Structure formats: structure tokens, C-alpha cells
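Feature request, filed as a ticket because there's no other form

It would be nice if the structure record came with a short human-readable summary line next to the C-alpha cells. Right now we just get the raw output. Example of a typical job, pasted below so the devs can see what we mean:
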Amino acid sequence: MNINDFKEDFGKAIEFFKTDIAGLRTGRATSAMVENVTVEAYGIRQPLKAVASISIMDPKTLMLDPWDKTILAAVEKGIRDANIGINPVNDGRGIRLSLPELTVERRQELIKILRERTEGVRIAIRKIREDIKDMILAEQEDNNIAEDEKFRLMDELEKAVKDYNEEIKEIANKKEEEISTV
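Raw output as currently delivered:
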């Protein structure tokens, strides 16, 4: 048994966290803000990135260009229903999203959401840690590993979890700084 065998599980949790918080609005327009907004098109709900190209016109404006112009209204409705604080403007060829300035209250709200999501990923990391601990204890009970090996694996696991939590903290601090920057 090796703790590095579980590196992928920890990595998936951190990648999900990065993707999850990428959609949190900062002062700049990014495609991540809207690419996972669901749109009702062709009778099914699908992410915006599957039905339209998303381009950044300037730091405060996104342009959505659906590949099929007949779904413009559906894309516009999807943006409105997502309640992301951006008002879509349909010009007949595409949809323009102009980002309003973030108010102090909205920035504080976004930081609160960021902290909730940060805690969510920490819980996921703890869950993975508990599963690995249970495996280590089961291995020892089955006499597959010695007690010294159990303690070595537990120490290695705790060090790995500490490193992943530090990485999460760095990612969250960087995102919080982005949100706070006016």
C-alpha cells in the first residue's frame, strides 16, 4: 500500500474546486463565468459551452455566439435563469454580456460563497483521508502490514493531507484577492 496511489483522488477534488471557483465573478470577464450555465436547447439541458462559442471582447464584456441562431432566446433565458448578476443583451446575431461593477456587498457575498466552497473541498479531502485510514487499519487487521508500517502510512497520509490543504488555501487566497481587487 502506498499513499501516492491515492494522489489521483486528492487531485480530482482539487481540480473540481478550481473549476468550481473559476465561475465566481471577479472584476474581469472570463469564459468560466458562463460556460457551465445550462441552456434548454433541442429538448435537453446542456452547458452553454456545448451550444455556443464564448469570446471575451474586453475586460468587462463577453460575447456568446450560438452555433444555431434559432436558440438565441434559449441561451438568453439560460443566462437570466442562472442568476449570475449579468443582464444579457440579444442583438439578433449573438448575446452580449456586459459585467456591471462589483459592489462592496456583492464582493463580500462572493467571498462568502468562496469560503463555503473551500470548506466543501476540505470536507472532500477529509473524506478521502478517512477512507484511506480505514484501508490502512483493515490491512493491519488482516496482517498484511506490520504496526510500524501502519504508523508510517498514517504519518505519510497526514503529511499529504496537510500539503493538499495548503494548496487549497493558496488557491482560495488567490481567488479572494481577485474578487477583492477593485
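Something like this underneath would help us a lot:
Residues 28-98 form a domain with the Gyrase A; domain 2 fold (CATH 3.30.1360.40).
The chain has four helices and six strands.
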